[in-house]
Amino acid sequence: MDIIDALLGEHGALYAALDGVERISGAATSLAEVRAQASLLGAAVQGHSQLEDELLFTVLESRVASAEGVIKSMRRMHADIDDALARLRVLQDVGPARDLLLSVVAMAREHFSAEEEFCFPLADQALAPDVLDRLGAAWAERRGVTIA
Ligand SMILES: [Fe+2]
Ligand SMILES: [Fe+2]
Q1: Is 148 inside a domain boundary?
Q2: Which domain holds residue 107?
Q3: Residues with Cβ within 5 Å of ion ligand 1?
Q4: CATH code for position 102
Q5: Which of 2, 8, 27, 58 is deepest in the core (most CB within 10 A)?
Q6: Which of 34, 56, 72 is closest to 132 using CA atoms?
């Protein structure tokens, strides 16, 4: 199990979640509704970012000097999404909260797409297949996925 394939699979599931949040939150009329959506989406996106950072980025930056700029940029995008989610949690009005949640959706789509275009191909090219498989096994263990 290659870590890149695992993370791409997570993007696929997250894209579907982003579509759902956009549809439901776009029509939300209460702050509680927007907060509930933000909380679910935040847990899914931040759980993904954390695994990516701990498993892939850390290994990539320790082994591939040329990946430094790309990783810095990906981590900046993770931090921007985290900041927006933190700001959202303290908003008291439904309109601004909904707008910020929709902008988190857009930021996440843009970020996943940047990883797919720049970061994952770089990792795939720069890391040896056995390293990618070992990281994939660590991913499966963290996610509770059984690989036969
Ligand atoms: Fe990411
Ligand atoms: Fe990702």
Answers
A1: no
A2: 3-143
A3: 49, 52
A4: 1.20.120.520
A5: 2
A6: 56
Ligand nearest the Cα atom of residue 49: 1
Distance 87 CA to ligand 2 centre (A): 22
Domain-located, residue 26: yes
Which ligand approaches the C-alpha of residue 112 most closely? 2
Q: Which two tokens stand for residue 133?
A: 């498989």
Ligand 2 centroid to Cα of residue 33, in Å, is 26
Q: Which helix (H) or strand (E) element contains residue 29? A: none
Q: Provide the residue-wise pLDDT of the chain in tens; the chain has 148 residues.
A: 899 999 999 999 999 999 999 999 989 999 999 999 999 999 999 999 999 999 999 999 999 999 999 999 999 999 999 999 999 999 999 999 999 999 999 999 999 999 999 999 999 999 999 999 999 999 999 999 998 8
